Amino acid sequence: MKVLSGIQPSGQLHIGNYFGMMKTMISNMENSDLYVFIVNLHALTSVHDREKLAAGTLEAAADFLALGLDPEKCTFWVQSDVPEVCELAWILSTVTPMGLMERCHSYKDKVAKGIDASHGLFSYPVLMAADILLYQADQVPVGKDQKQHLEVARDVAQKFNNTFGETFVVPEPFISDTTAIVPGLDGQKMSKSYGNTIPIFLEGKQLKKKVMAIATDAIPVEDPKDPDQCNLFALFKLFATPERLQEIRNLYVNGGAAYGYLKLELLELISDYYAEARQKKAEYMADPEMIRTVLRKGAIRAREKAMVTLDLVRERVGLKY
Ligand code: AQP
């Protein structure tokens, strides 16, 4: 089975990215034909700073490698190194109904948060469909925020197949129930562009500042609380052992959950969870040329696959004459 997913280098990768997508991708390494890529063309919809985008691309790659992605066991590349995706995106855009695009809430949410309403931001889902269909992916692990974009990719694939004949695999999303939406510090979806993240590789005082800023209610310590309505508890679910999670749940239900102490415990759990990866990341960051070599090799492999699909698409639509 071909499993594919990408990540934007639009800021420091955070624990929402990790539990929503990266962890699942890394765990798929042994049992699937895995495609992982850094979607820098997508990030251009929100990052207009050359140095930030270039450095963020290398850093996102270092993050994935440090967290355990083995480039020998998957195809790992940077989106813009396979320019065929842009041609496919254009071709797909010609069969994408406007109504389908106008229904996409991610565009509206981002504009409401102050991101410029560019054409690129609006047509983001078409480029994403091209990313997926170009490699004929069967399954796409994503967080719940990307579910609608996956539906666009499916609709576009079906529309193309109906119009021009069977060409694309229609991809299935994979969304884990437990990590579908990791909440940010303010309780909204954790998101780079919302400024509410806990970056994966933060440490020391900076990490403490973030964890202590997790929004909680003002119910007195000794009063019962509903753990399932609590942002802090949602984060514990990602890091605590089942036994400790049950103990903490009991504190909420019976009274005695002191947020300050719980935050310090969560801080330690997060810090320990990524300790080994943090060390590996420092090693990768010290050798950017090695990261570039890994990505270049991955792009060669990805491009071979991409060209097979694009050749078929060109033939199907009449671009070969
Ligand atoms: N809070 C989240 N919970 C679960 N999954 C999440 N993902 C992102 N945030 C959460 C998943 O991470 C993958 C990569 O995301 P992305 O960086 O490509 O784009 P995004 O979904 O738009 O992530 P951000 O952080 O919100 O980025 P910005 O703010 O730049 O747009 C995706 O599978 C996503 O579902």
From TrEMBL:
The keyword Ligase applies. It is found in: Cytoplasm. Its main location: cytoplasm. NCBIfam families: trpS. Belongs to the class-I aminoacyl-tRNA synthetase family. Homodimer. This is Tryptophan--tRNA ligase. It comes from Desulfocapsa sulfexigens (strain DSM 10523 / SB164P1).
